[in-house]
Each structure stands twice: as structure tokens, then as C-alpha cells.
Amino acid sequence: MSAALKAKDQLIRAVECDQIGRILEAQTLYQDGIALLMSFVETEPDETKRKAFLLRIKEYIDRADAIKARVNGKLMLGEVVDHVSIEENDTGFDYDQIFGKYMDDKTVEILLEEPYLTQNYQYQNLVRFLELAITNCKNLKYFRLITKEHTDPKNPDQQKTNLGQIRADLERRDIVVSVKYEDTLHDRRIYLSNGYIIKIGRGLHFYKAANPMYSIGLVNYRYRKCLQTDVDIWRNNRTAS
Amino acid sequence: MSAALKAKDQLIRAVECDQIGRILEAQTLYQDGIALLMSFVETEPDETKRKAFLLRIKEYIDRADAIKARVNGKLMLGEVVDHVSIEENDTGFDYDQIFGKYMDDKTVEILLEEPYLTQNYQYQNLVRFLELAITNCKNLKYFRLITKEHTDPKNPDQQKTNLGQIRADLERRDIVVSVKYEDTLHDRRIYLSNGYIIKIGRGLHFYKAANPMYSIGLVNYRYRKCLQTDVDIWRNNRTAS
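Predict the joint structure of the above. Result:
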């Protein structure tokens, strides 16, 4: 497919996603489509054609801006519907028990902001989270992960390889995945497109290591000791917008 | 505690366990108590005292034989109550889904015959099994594991260390653990004291490795691909005996 055709295809899909409420995916498609179109326009020698393209691009940028405003609205916190305080060394908490009930058939898009994905146990936590998402959100179509870029000096490709494995696996399940790197990211947040936003102080990583390794809690995290952290579940007021 | 007192204590507990139906634990206590008493008697210089001891030991041996007969009766298969055929590459099976419903409040003792416990994933499977047992069998008091002894040339203490960790962890939860090594063991069997016996051709190890490592199914084994194996669930006819 030529760059122009690919851009066109992405922008058509962006409009479709927007219309059916998959606004995170629409946002990604608009951004990618516009970037592709821009690079294509720059190589267009015909001045008239280029101006026409730029006009078209301007329209798409306006739409992308509108989408961005909608996404930001969705990500705004509304009212707190639940709060859980996890104390140091508490047990009895796994993702399902804490927020599984908010993940449902109406969740078609998920945004996870999780700054730290560099250690094996952190990738495992991500997979654990996604397994719950796949189990509970039968109509999940899009997953966006925002994390800090990490280059392990001993294995520089490690993060990209691991996240690439996860992405490929989800895409085999017809879930579009977008990974974005943001070096200034600090806060942890899980946005569900059904309107719930889960904020955990420590993000997904609030478990202590199994100690000793082979003990109850190695697999079933309801038996794992936790680090102190607070969980707030918010519901966005603009869910219907 | 002197050897004699310890032996006495074990034999008293053996009788107590026998009376309340914890016959696997009673069997272990009888065997250990008798062995301890025997070693003690051998060092007794007084001929008359020794003969009196030996008479007492004879009584305990008779009781231990009676217990052994009862245990063997419990382990005899009765009728098949369920059968599951797992095909190569099937997904959708975890321990809970296959046999969790047979593990209940009435299960106070479990015997697991699992010949192969040498690799990390095999110890993980054992912990996974025990987490289910602890979750479902609220009154579990005794766990006997029979496996093949394995000496890793690079790390000769590995098996003992790992099983020791698991044992200590269960004992902190007031579950007595007995590990026996049998080099000729082949068949896999899970005996529950509520009368159910679970036979899985491959024992606990019927899962393929996660491939790639970070993919759905890494943690939640309902998404893991399986190896071909058959599961038969039996109910012992002498449950009430």
C-alpha cells in the first residue's frame, strides 16, 4: 500500500472509530494518519496539489483536536465511587478483587499509564492485568499503554521485545495496541471506556516478592503480601458524551 | 524432649488422629513413633525393661498395620464420577476448573503422588495446586507428598530446599506436611480425604510453556496451551469407613 493510500485508510478508520465511540483508537489513527499524510505532502512537487493536500490535512487536524478534547474530557475525574487503603504486609488483594468488577462488556478501550515496566515481575504484572481485562471485557478492541522508555545497558532491546510480545499476542485476539513512551510520566492511572478510572498510588506494582520463593502466594496474589498503597476508583461524569 | 517422650507424644497423637479420621497423619505418626521407640529400645541395657518395651511396640505395630489397611482401603478406586479429555494445544483448563469443585471443607487430608518435582515450573505447579487446596479446603490439616528423589548435579540441595520452603510455609498455616521419596513412583494421583481421587495422566504438569514468555496465559492457566492428557475423577466407595 502506498503512503497516501495507507494514510487515507487510517483516516477513514479514525472517523469510523470516532463514530462508534472508540475515541482512543480514533485519536491514535488521526495522529498516525496525519503524520503519514504530512510526510507524503512534503514530497509532492506540484504546488497546487500540495496546497489542496494541506487544506485537507487542516480539516483532519481540526478533527483530531476535537477528538483530543473528547479524550481529555473522558479522562477527567468525576466522582469517587470506591476507595481501598492497602496497608504494608496486607494480604487478600488481587487485581480482580480490587477492580475486576469495574471491567465489563462495555469496556471497549483501556488506557494504562504505568511508568515502570523494566523488571520481569513488572511485565508479569502487566500480563496479569491484561489477562483480567481479556477475561472480563469481552468486547475489548483497543489498549493503549503509556510508560517510560527504559534501556537496560545489558539488554537494550529488552523492553521493546517484551512489550512487542504482548502487543502481538493481543493483536492475535483482535485488540489494537498502541504503546507510547513518556519520560515525564509519574502518575498511575487505568482508564476504562465504560467511564471508570482506577488510580493506584503504586500502579500495578504494589506486591512484595514471594518470600521464600516457593510459598503460598507465588501464583495466587490474594496470598501475596502488599506494599502500602491507596486505590481510588473514580467514575467520569461525562461517560455518555 | 527425650526420644522416649517424643515417641510417646507421637503415638498419642497418632491415636488421636486415627480417632478423628485423619488417618494419613495417624499413619505417619505411628510409623515415626515406632521407629523412634525402636531406636530407643535398642539402647536400653535392662533386659526386662526392653522386653516390656518390645511388647508395647508390638501393640503399636498392630495398630499401624490396621491403619495401613484403612489407608489402602481409602486409596482404592470406587466409581468414576467425571472424565475430562484434554487434547494437545487445548486451552481453558486450570486446576480449579478441572477439579476445584471436589476440594471442599470436608477435605482434611490430601495425598499427592507426583513423581516429577525437579524443575522450576514443576515447583510452581505444586504451589499452584496448594494455593487451590488452601483456598477451597478450609479445614485442611495434613498434606502428604510422594515424589521421586532428585539430585541436581549443579545444585544438589535444590529439591530439598524448595520442598522445605513449601513445607515450612504450610506448617505456618497449621497444616502438617510429610514428604516421602519413592524412586519407583510412576502414576500420578491426588487423594482427598472427602473420598475423591483425581487421576491425571500427566499429573500436575500438563501445560505447555508460555510462548512467547510475555503473553496471555503466563499467569492465568485457563489461557495456557495444554499437552494431551486424560483426567479421571473417582469416588471411593468406602468414604464413610
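The first helix of chain B runs from residue 3 to 19.
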